[in-house]
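Hey L., structure's done. Input below.
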Amino acid sequence: MKVLYRSAIRFIRKVNMLRKLFCTFVNKRCMIKIEDIQKEINALSKDDFKKLRDWIIEREWGYWDQEIKKDSENGKLDFLIEEAQDAKYKNKLSNL
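Output:
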């Protein structure tokens, strides 16, 4: 459930970011509702929908990569190294 929640939050953030980019591009403030975006997506052809889906997935992975890189640089993932070293010391590692 947590994974689904996080994915939903990331999607909402991305939609909001896309809205801001669009409004900046057309040089005006606008209020685009999620329902309007959903209608436009539903109107896409199968091929265009696949392209949009693939683009969103790639963007999401890019954001995820940036977040992991930032967390790693800030030491937030150091506990993983410590856990691995501890498991190695206790001879609890197994081959994959």
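The chain has one domain: 2-89. The first helix runs from residue 2 to 25.

-- N.
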